[in-house]
Design goal:
With 423 residues, chain A is an alpha+beta fold. Chain A has 13 helices and 10 strands. In chain B, the strands form 2 sheets. In chain B, strands 1, 5, 6, 7, 8, 9, 10 and 11 form an 8-stranded mixed sheet that branches. Chain B has a two-stranded antiparallel sheet with strand order 3-4. The chains are: A alpha+beta (423), B alpha+beta (414).
Chain lengths: 423, 414
Amino acid sequence: MKSIDEFSRPRSTISPMERPFRSLLRRLVDEEIMPHRREYDEDWEKHEYIEPVIHKLCVDLGIQKALFPQECGGWSLGQSDYMMALAYCIAEEVGRGDSALSLSSICSLWPLCTFLIPPLVNMDLAKRLAPLFTGDTLCIGCQAMTEPQGGSDIENMDLIRGKTITTTARQEGGHWVINGHKLWPTNSGGIATIFGVPCTTKPGSDDPDDFAYIMVPADTEGVTQSTPYAKAGMAADKNGDIWFENVRVPLAYRVHGPGTDALAFKGLIYMGQLGSVGFAVGALMNIYEILYDFASTRTFGNRLLKENDAIAAMLGDLAGAVDICRVLAYEVVRLGDDRNKPWGSPIYSEETTAKARNIKEFICDKAVEISGRAMDILGAYGCDRVWDIEKHWRDLKMIQLWLGGKQLCQMEKARYYFNCETL
Amino acid sequence: MAYDVSELFPYPRNWVDDDTRAIAAAIHKWADNEIINNRLEYQKAYARLFNERRRSHNLDIGFQRIIFPEEYGGSGFNSLQKTPALVTILGELSRADAGMGFMSALEYSLSAVAAMEPNVNNKICDLIAPLLCGTELKTVSILMPGPGTAGRDDPLFMGRSISARIEPHRGGYLLNGSGIRPVGNGAIADIFGVVCANPEGKAGIALITADRSGIVRGESIRQTGLDACLNADISFNNTPVPSEHVVMNDDAVRELYTWLNLFLGAVSVGACLNFFEILRNWAENRTIKGKGLLKNNPLCASVLATVAEEIGLAKILVYNISNFLGRTEVWGGHENPVIFMAAQMFGKRIQQSALNAINRGMELMASAGYAKEWHAEKHWRDVKTIQSVLCGVASEVPVHMDMARFFYDSAVVA
């Protein structure tokens, strides 16, 4: 049997530590995640089975400390030219087993990317928060951006520029005082240890200087989290409401300052696309594995499915699309890992954002199509949870919809490639 | 602006009589009052409320017996001319809950094979009419041909493997088959319609009640959608079937495919109509870019239009299949191969359009699209489940082979 490692990827973007790390992850996914992922699917509310696996990934494997500089007890991954390749590797490998588990583990680091990736590093804040992430206790980060009235407006920074944000940050003595309501972020629903909160210091302003990104420990007085929402899938990712009522955090918890916070936040949009393509391609590779098994053991017209010309053509198209999606995903990796090269662009640049969104949209559209088609190939077994394709189908649709969904991707592309000025 | 979603999408209204429209309006109101306007309560106590509402629709109002002739205690909707009426009724029911519609669609499909004029099979009606026209809620499961297993040489129905076999035994038959996957309802069925093959490999349908000996249900299967239509693999171990309860006829199997495509098409369209209502409500109340309503933004309006287009197309195709069947003076009924082919071809397209409508509409709802609170995701999962089980195996390939045989005299077997 061919393995999923047959799918293409540019060797030049693979980091020296990727091979052993990927092997480690592959074994963990095969032995500890795959056999239990149906249990995770039912565990969306309590996370009795899910939390120990997240602990294993984030604490035991060390993912949660990866971004912190070595002098803070981390791996200095934020400094590495292979940072995106390794982040993608984690997203893809764990996503092959359970994309929500991958999401929850990786998104825990998402808010940290605002101040741990050069050139936008805040060493003082890194030192303050490192003890949370570099110890033996699970620390869950949550990037709390979406607001009730704004939907994907918050991700649409190039156009809206924070104008619709209603969560406010007011400076009072040595503290920021935060008031507002966020909803839907990954790792909310009661499990977050610390939030990254986009706020405005001047409601209604579209001046980037009035945008603030502030880290807020979840146990700060005035922070309330709802119980998790019930969703179609992605059980390992809890989502809920978060209310901030006169929440006071030290001034030092603002990641940078006027103007730079907005840039750092824009970089998060790229990181979101990188994770998304990793989760999606990981799921697609597992769909290929399941299809391989089914098409090699089941028949139509008393011939193996894969030996029937018409079905083989369909299978060939599906595998070919997975291969192309993976190549494209590595292009997203390259965009990020070239950020410090003379030919590269910062992850918060318009070019990087637009190109990453373009690829994310393409891969997600393909992934939704492939997973749906794969279910139909299995027929009455395709919608059976035992075969696991349907779980990927539910999860992939959610990946397609988040981060502003397809339409925001289309607008970003149009603005970038056609210099649209009024969209 | 107030609107009636049942009449918003154009369809040939002259194919549906006034009586049917009145019945449809009554179901529409029932669906609003009993389910749609109380979704959250319905979701919280789904298993209990599903059965209560299904009982109310099927028994109190009487839709379980609708297809059977009046002499069997039915409502006499057993002429092919009533097909558009059945489609209309299923669509309205499925607007409330596709699971309920799915259960009725399986029941109507099997009942139609038994009771639809001009080929009323009195022996089979004698078996199932007392159950379906009685005072208890009954559930039908159908086992169609599907994938075969490597190394086995199965009898085939147009390329699809037939896993159930019958063999003559003391004037009747014995039915055998192991771990066969039904279209749905396997775990809870009172009546099974089983596509089977005789020792010569000829296909037919055996109808049996669940109390027959030798029937073993596997563990309940958790599925993507249709949560209430609990499925399970079924094994038959020398299950006795009286000869009069077996229709040994390829045409009967083709007819069963035709009814399934039609009725499950109506179910998916019904689910889509409620999805449309949810989406329209969303587009009328949510803003984009901090200003205008979604529906007034050109990009969102374009996506909304695609959703409407797909639903409109699916609806018109469902009514067209029903018209082919109803216009026996033109098409001649099930004996005409074009009926089977059209049902397969359009049935596939209906499911594709229905799913595409929901998929595209969900794009505009972002996380609300997949939050259970908004109910869009349930329609999405239910319609996808219907599409997959209707494929049987190998996605659209079996239907493409059926079409190639019809349009090109292709000799393709599989």
